[in-house]
Structure formats: structure tokens, C-alpha cells
Amino acid sequence: MTQQFDRSDSKVEVTGFEARYYDLLMNTITGGTYPFFIRRVVREMEIRPADSILLLGSGTGRNACLMNHYLSDQGRILGLDIGPEMLEQAHRRCRRFPQITFEKQRIDETLPYAESFDKVFIAFVLHGFVQEDRLRIIANAYRALRPGGEFIILDYNEFDPAKAPWLVRFAFKLECPLATDFALREWKPTLRAQGFDDFRSYPHYRGYVRLLAARKGKGN
Ligand SMILES: C[S@@+](CC[C@H](N)C(=O)[O-])C[C@H]1O[C@@H](n2cnc3c(N)ncnc32)[C@H](O)[C@@H]1O
Question: What is the pLDDT of residue 176?
């Protein structure tokens, strides 16, 4: 039987010290590999020069700045986040790039975008919500995408954390319980039920992390 969770189990709202030093913490936790990992992930996104990209839970702006290298003047990036420290860092870091903007906006509420983006990217955010909110976020991504556009999820892969090596088990003890719930689910059927298909998948960190890209059908 699956365990029941509620919103009080979530730790995805990053604030204070953790938010101010978020990038440094990620670099340290991953033994200095994070900058190389995230560059590879951005290459796997297959960004085209004129793409419009929506970032859900955009964080410190590190990802937006890396993606911007692949864009021409025709491309644009909109990042949505609610963390004041995250938004402040993102504004500061990306201020040289006029086609990148950030807005304070909850992503688990219905968003006002329809068929406006070629890619919607969400990194290490989706696992932190209860399933009902995850489905709302996925529906937001679907609506925001143009037909043929891709929803790109970078997050934990599908596995049973209780059966993983001790280091992974330890990491999941520090994570919120919702991360375990996320890893135990099968995501392709859920995405298919919401109208996505044509998946691309790239494992990272010995397969415990995955980039999963899902396309919005052209006929939908
Ligand atoms: C673990 S961090 C990941 C940040 C970024 N995606 C990255 O990979 O570097 C989670 C991010 O989601 C944001 N967040 C949490 N809940 C949110 C919500 N309901 N709406 C928008 N952003 C949210 C946090 O402020 C934080 O920036």
C-alpha cells in the first residue's frame, strides 16, 4: 500500500541559508561534479536558437544562464520561482542577458500560459510536491507548451530508495518523504495520461537521477 502524504511533508521551498548558498551546497554534496553534470543536462535538452523556454522553480538562475548560451536573440527564457533569495540571485546573475526574465509565481497554481513555449524545464522541484500538485504542475506544462514542444524533467529516477546503496539511502533520509514517493512511481504512464508521448531519457549519477523529456503531440 502506498503511504499517504500531505503538503506539510514538502521541503521544496528553499529559503534562508540553504537558498543563499544553494549552488555551493549542490557542488559540495555532489563532490564538485554538479557544474559538469548540469552542463551535460543542458546539452541533452537540445535547445534550438529560437526556443522559448519556461523554467518551473528556476532557482538561482544558474540553469537559465547556461541555457542562454544556446539561444540567439530570437530565443527567450522565463523563470518562475517563489523563493525571495532564489529570485534575487537569479536576477543578479542573469542581468546581462535581456532575453532572460524571472517572475515571482507559484507553479502549483494554474498558470496563465497557453501554447507559448517550446520547452518547459523543471529540475529537482517536482518530487517535492504531493501527487495532486504534481499533476497540476504537469497540466500547467502541457498547456504552456506549443504542439511538438517538450516537457523536460530533471529529478530522481524510478527506484526503491529502501533497496539502494547506503549513500543513496542516507541522502533520502535527509530528503523529504515526498522524494521517496516520487522515486517509487512510474512517470511515463502518468505523463502519457496527461497527453505527452515520444520520451527521451538520460540517466545520471549511476542512474539515480534522470532527465526525462516528454513531447506534447502535434495533433493535440
Ligand atoms: C531544490 S530547488 C531547485 C532549483 C533549480 N530548479 C535548480 O535545479 O537549481 C527548488 C526550487 O523550487 C522553488 N519552489 C518551491 N516551491 C515552489 C512553488 N510552489 N512555486 C514556484 N517555485 C517553487 C524553490 O524556491 C527553489 O528555487
Answer: 86
